[in-house]
Amino acid sequence: MKFTAFLLLFGFLLSVSGILAQDDVDLIDPMLIKLQGRIISAADSLPVPYANIINNRTHSGTITNTDGRFSLEMLNIDSLIVTSVGFENGLIKVPSNYTGYGTITFTLLPRNYAIGEVDVAGEKPKVDLGFEVGTASDIAPELRGDAFNEAPPIVAAFFNPISYWQYYLSRKEKRKRAVRREMVIQKNWEMHSQNYNKEKVMLLTGMNDLEADSFMIWFNGQDVLPYLSSEYQIRATVIEYFHYYKIEKAQGIIE
Predict the structure, then answer these.
(1) CA 31 → CA 48, 70, 152, distances in Å?
(2) Is the pLDDT score of 112 beyond 70?
(3) Of 85, 48, 50, 83, whose CA–CA distance to 198 is shortest?
(4) Is pLDDT larger for residue 18 or for residue 203?
(5) Which residues pair with 72 in a beta bridge?
(6) Of 42, 51, 53, residue with least CA distance to 111
(7) What gap in Å lies between CA 36 and CA 241, rounded to an integer?
(8) CB neighbours (10 Å) of residue 183?
(9) What's the distance, Cα to Cα, between the start and end of the chain in Å?
(10) What are the pLDDT digits (tens) for 6-20?
(11) pTM (two decimals)
(12) Maximum separation of any 2 CA atoms in the chain, in Å
């Protein structure tokens, strides 16, 4: 009986030592690398421009260019968070054997919005409210409201109460309005990114690629550039804050 217990204990110690030895093999020595990466869509393999890349450890980061490419100094054990309008958030972990040579391609999953069809049965009485005929809407048919493309006026609550309350209470209507807001944000961001990107910053300030990354991270944190800024406003603001950036850098406020 004692001999059997001894064998069991010996086997247990062997298994534990094997696990610890395996853990030692899996340990990775931290090493500073310059990651060369590219972000593409998992749906069509097209590049994802102007995606935000954030280092979880340092909270610093960069953005992708128009071809979805980026470069970032980091440790090979760091993990990166990738965010972009219209895509699910992504997590990047660098392979343990990567030394900074060559470009690694990462994929993002598109964010899908499920919008069900709306079936309207029966006929409702036509009421002439004396309003002028409306203009054509540029909203896609599948995103249009069942009753209104815009918030209905108070008078509609008396003449067409079903549609009026459907606009405010229907879950489908609320989902459609949420999708519309996302589409507007995406459109504004695309227009904004044509005038504000790293190439334009490098042209206006004379900085190199790495310096422009640091400046843009600092500049974005100032939150002084609305999405709807004109090209002139963007140029003037970048030049003005580049002056402040150089002062803070000279004073050691910015590393």
Answers:
(1) 28, 19, 60
(2) yes
(3) 50
(4) 203
(5) 35
(6) 42
(7) 28
(8) 16
(9) 68
(10) 555 555 555 545 544
(11) 0.37
(12) 100
Written as six digits, the tokens of 193 are 């990114």
- Matching residue, tokens 């504004």: 188
Which token pair is 155? Answer: 């008078």
Encoded tokens for 120:
């309207």
Alpha-carbon gap, residue 160 to 131, rounded angstroms:
14
Q: Where are the domains of the chain?
A: 32-108, 141-190, 196-250
* 38 exposure class (CB count in 10 Å sphere: 0-12, 13-18, 19+): middle
Q: What is the pLDDT of residues 131-165, one digit of tens each?
A: 555 556 555 555 555 445 566 677 666 667 776 66
> If DSSP codes are grouped into helix, strand and coil, which group holds residue 153?
coil
Give, in order, the Cα–Cα distances in Å from 117 to each of 27, 112, 144, 173.
53, 16, 11, 11
Closest CA to 47 of 113, 108, 90, 101: 108
Residue 139 burial by CB count (10 A; 0-12/13-18/19+): exposed, middle or buried?
A: middle
Section 89-107 average pLDDT: 86
Between CA 148 and CA 132 the distance in angstroms is 15
Q: Please state, in angstroms and as integers, the Cα–Cα distance from residue 213 to each residue in 15, 47, 63, 70, 114, following that order.
A: 49, 19, 8, 10, 36
Q: Is the separation of the CB atoms in 33 and 73 below 8 Å?
A: yes
> The domain 32-108: what is its CATH number?
2.60.40.1120
CB atoms within 10 A of CB 84: 24
Other CB atoms within a 10 A radius of the CB of residue 164 amount to 20
- Pairing state of beta strands 52-55 and 104-108? unpaired
Least confident of 20-24, 154-158, 199-203: 20-24
In sequence order, what are the beta bridge partners of 166? none
The first and second tokens of residue 78, run together, are 């760091």
